[in-house]
Amino acid sequence: MWSTSSRSRMAVFIVMLTLTYLFSTTALVTGEPRAVCPNPIVEAVEGHSVSLPCHLDPPDNVVNNAVDWKRTDANKVVWAYRNKKENLIDQIAEYRGRVTVNLQGLNIGNMTLLISSVKKSDAGPYRCFTSKLRTGCNLSLIFVPRDQQNGTKLEDFSTTTPPTHEPDEPGAENMKRVRYIILLVVGVFFIIVIVALVIRGMNNAES
Known about the structure:
Number of strands: 11
Largest sheet: 6 strands, mixed
Strand content: 15-25%
Number of domains: 2
Structural class: alpha+beta
CATH class of the largest domain: Mainly Beta
Order of helices and strands: HEEEEEEEEEEEH
CATH architecture of the largest domain: Sandwich
Number of helices: 2
CATH superfamily of the largest domain: Immunoglobulins
Strand order of the largest sheet: 2-11-10-5-6-7
Oligomer: single chain
CATH topology of the largest domain: Immunoglobulin-like
Radius of gyration: 26 Å
């Protein structure tokens, strides 16, 4: 026969199990955005323009949040965004007038940096960071002298205009959420069945 204390402990255990499952599954469904630099190494030809790709996955609006691009080797600001506008007070002098981010892209978390008139001093490690979720990513820019560009294979993102961020597959994010929701429903049903069996067992033990 189940004692009152045993039934209470079992009830608490079931409640905790249910809450833990719901919390973990909900976290999977919502998914916290993270900064992604899809190309860790970017090559740029001397005198050309180059895009340093960075975006949030899943996409999220960062218009109301701070965004920074820095040179991690010198911990200096390459480009900064504050209060819904560019804030270049602390910007490295050699980047002034040569770097930009499409502010419209911030609506979907696209923080790609465009550097024009690439020169040798631009080579080095960069970090894209947003205070939205305190998330960032790193990449490195490799400088290619103009007289060597024909012998170097450049990536498609080394262009005169920043690439437009698009999902890897149309509807992929929605399908992922649907799968998680199905998992949530199945899990809840499974827990309800367990609870029903436990209660039934308790009743049988008492009779």
